[in-house]
Amino acid sequence: MPRVARPAPAFAAVGDTPLAALAGVGPRVAEKLAARGLLTLQDLWLQLPRQYEDRTRISPIRSLQPGAAAQVEGVVEAVERGFRYRPVLRVAISDESRATLVLRFFHFRATQVAQFAPGVRVRCYGTLRAGQHGLEIVHPSYRVLDADEHALGEQLDPVYPAIEGLGPVSLRRLIAQALDRLPEAEALELLPAPMRTSLALPSLREALLTVHRPPRDADVGALLAGTHPAQQRLALEELLAHHLSLRRQRIALQRDRAAMLAGPGVLAQRLREALPFALTGAQQRVFAQVRADLAKPMPMLRLVQGDVGSGKTVVAALAAMLAVECGRQAALMAPTELLAEQHLGNMRAWLEPLGVQVAWLAGKVTGKARASALDAVASGAAQVVVGTHALMQEGVRFHDLALAIVDEQHRFGVHQRLALRDKGARKDSVPHQLVMTATPIPRTLAMTAYADLDVSSIDELPPGRTPVQTVALSAERRPELVERIRRACAEGRQAYWVCTLIDDSDEVVAQAAQSTFEALSAALPELRIGLVHGRMKPAPKQATMRAFKDGALDLLVATTVIEVGVDVPNASLMIIENAERLGLAQLHQLRGRVGRGQAASSCVLLYQPPLSGLARERLETMRQTHDGFVIAEKDLELRGPGELLGTRQTGLAAFRVADLARDAALLPQVRALADQLLAQSPDLADRIVARWVGGAAQYAGA
Ligand code: ADP
Ligand code: MG
Predict the structure, then answer these.
(1) Is residue 338 part of a domain?
(2) Whether residue 223 sits in one domain with residue 141
């Protein structure tokens, strides 16, 4: 089929129309929509339902099952207004199946109570649950019917993600208006015709209409599972857009030049010889990969992923030596002051004996110390610079930055990572980038999420580590743990007690940590116990962490703030409360704080029974394996990649339709399509990126 000329401008014109063009969108509504990244008609087309309500039929009450959602119609039998712990309104309705259902409201107005007169017919929709007196729906959406009203909905009703300050009905109307302006299929399409034919998926127009307005005979199961061909079509294009966006960044970056750091490697060799240990095979391999990259005249962009404790820092130090040897600077940035300080300690211990000067820049470095550090960085006297975000501040000027190393990069956004690179950018070159993470990503995902990076894996731990013995215990057995801590500390070991709660607000968790701290202090008066949580000011928090690191504290009660990177080899016992609430990646990170020294370590996962099936499986996985990659695969399987690939972790925005676990099978196709598009129609590639990766995508995960 010959290609139809001209579709693009029509699409661009309609799709880019600002939302103010819709009826009902004044400045206030526009602002609320904009707060969610919804600026144009196209943004609304791509704002997809997260649920459907089937209002095309009415289910007999007798047929209902708890857990299912249904539309029900019945006559009000009885109304009861009560007050137990809070006001409650209970409305019993019954239908021709001669069964009764209770509608339960906790928030209601007097007018609502008046509506439910016995004998009135209501139609309601909601999810059923087993109540004290049979089936009930809490806060159903409902409508009182006129005497002669019988018509049913024509289609499945889409339920959109809520937008603050905008009611669901108004939102649905706006989206319907936007859809009414959807251009015809050819004008909307960005995938070239031959590509589309080979995919055997619906056109974008058809896919959007199906997803927003599913016909009454649509496969609801597939729609709810996200496996409907219409959703696959959208997911494919979205994944393609994200992949293309990363590929483009990479292409742009490779057009830049970088310093060739191709010295003989004498400094790095001297560092290796001075280390008290031999590099593992994996460290050697990864360092060789980094070295090969650095020798090229284009900027390296390499991710080193390695499990907690796999020894990434020393690889970073070796890489820095290649820059220093060529008379250039290297910078190492860490997400927390504590971690940065730990790196500083290592770098000074390793590098100063080699005659390399290490400067230190962090928030708390002020006054004279800061001025002299800035001088050393600007003059080039400091060859290696270690610090926190402070490295990117205004006023920091590098003499000659050739290598920017970012540790635990998932804690930074892509933008911060790039900001450090930009610090070192000159007219004719940009620094090489090495990013390190202890959050392994399964290979399938890595290729998509990190399409802009080369990935190296340190997939081997240094020898002599004894695996952490992991047990899961019901919270009732908490008292036994006090004895266990007493014994460990009596032997000169240190221990962590990690507090987590279902309510993740810092304040509530901080309170829980505080009371745990008090209880443990009372039970273990002979121990030196410290407390850190997210509500503390940075200075006391770091002082406490440091005291623990220096052995001045025996037991550290903490929230998950200790999660990243902290290295206290003498700590050999960790207790994690409410472990059933944490994801695998986080449990793995936490557990990685112990088992870093020679002593056999253990980790106790305390849980509140009863355990859900998923929670049981997570704890079981933790007991069975220590391999971060296995855990990451399992995490993906159990939880989906949404969280694994949070915005911060990858720089990828949350997806609107795609789900990397569910849609993994599309990925090979995505890569093939991307290759083809970049080679044949880079302009279309750009427009696909603009369609999906602008506006809302940036906000979806916020
Ligand atoms: P991570 O990869 O989690 O950042 P670190 O770089 O902090 O790990 O290393 C963890 C510990 O292992 C440090 O105390 C480090 O000195 C030590 N280490 C690193 N490499 C080796 C090795 N090849 N043999 C023995 N110990 C090592
Ligand atoms: Mg580290």
Answers:
(1) yes
(2) no
Q: Is 277 close to ligand 1, i.e. is its CB under 6 Å away?
A: yes
Q: What secondary structure letter does DSSP report for 129?
A: E
* Number of the ligand closest to the Cα of 312: 1
Pair (617, 518) in one structural domain: yes
Longest dimension (CA), the chain: 92
Q: Please report, for the domain that includes residue 84, its CATH number.
A: 2.40.50.140
Distance from Cα 37 to the centre of ligand 2, integer Å: 35
Question: What average pLDDT does the segment 515-540 reach?
Answer: 91
Which residues pair with residue 432 across a beta bridge?
403
Helical H segments across 256-334, by residue range: 266-274, 281-294, 312-325
CATH number at 541 reads: 3.40.50.300
Q: Are residues 498 and 586 in the same domain?
A: yes
Residue 237 forms part of a structural domain: no
Average pLDDT over all residues of the chain: 85
CA dist., res. 546 & res. 458, Å (int): 28
Residues in the chain: 702
Same domain, residue pair 446 and 473:
no
438 lines ligand 1 (CB under 6 A): yes
Could you tell me if the CB of 312 is within 6 A of ligand 1? yes
Q: Which of 625, 643, 658 is the last residue of a domain?
A: 625
Query: 317 versus 20: which is more confidently predicted?
Result: 317
Question: Is the C-beta atom of 475 inside 6 A of ligand 1?
Answer: no
Q: Are residues 203 and 305 in the same domain?
A: no
Q: Tell me: do 400 and 543 sit in the same domain.
A: no
Q: Which ligand is nearest to the Cα of residue 570, counting in written order? A: 1
Ligand 1 pocket: which of 313, 459, 570, 593 to mutate (most atoms within 8 A of CB): 313
Q: Is 699 within the bounds of a domain? A: no
Q: Do residues 124 and 271 share a domain?
A: no
For residue 656, tell me if it sits in a domain: no
| Ligand 1 pocket, mutate which of 277, 350, 591 (most atoms under 8 A from CB) | 277
Q: Domain end: 560, 592, 625, which one?
A: 625
C-alpha distances in angstroms, 276 versus 279, 349, 354, 460? 10, 11, 15, 18
CA distance 544 to 136: 51
How many folded domains does the chain comprise? 4
Q: Could you read off the pLDDT of 611-656 as tens digits, one per residue?
A: 888 889 899 999 999 888 788 778 777 754 444 433 333 333 467 7
- Residue 162 CA: distances (Å) to CA of 21, 48, 380: 21, 11, 53
Tell me, using a 6 A CB cutoff, whether residue 314 lines ligand 1: yes
- Does residue 564 carry a pLDDT above 70? no
| Paired strand residues for 499 | none
189 CB within 6 A, ligand 1: no
Question: Rounded to the nearest whole angstrom, what is the distance from the C-alpha of residue 316 to the centroid of ligand 1?
Answer: 11
Ligand 1 close to Cβ of residue 439 (< 6 A): no
Tell me the C-alpha distance between 641 and 654, whole Å.
Answer: 10
Tell me the per-residue pLDDT of 153-188, one tens digit each, with 9 for 90 and over: 777 888 888 888 888 888 999 999 999 999 998 889
CATH of the domain at 17: 1.10.150.20
698 pLDDT above the threshold of 80:
no
Q: Name the residue range of residue 324's domain.
A: 266-458
Q: How far apart are CA 50 and CA 175, in angstroms?
A: 14
Q: Are residues 357 and 486 in the same domain?
A: no
Name the closest ligand to CA 306.
1
Task: State pLDDT tens for residues 180-217.
Answer: 999 998 889 999 888 888 888 899 999 999 999 998 78
Element (H, E) at 138: strand 134-138
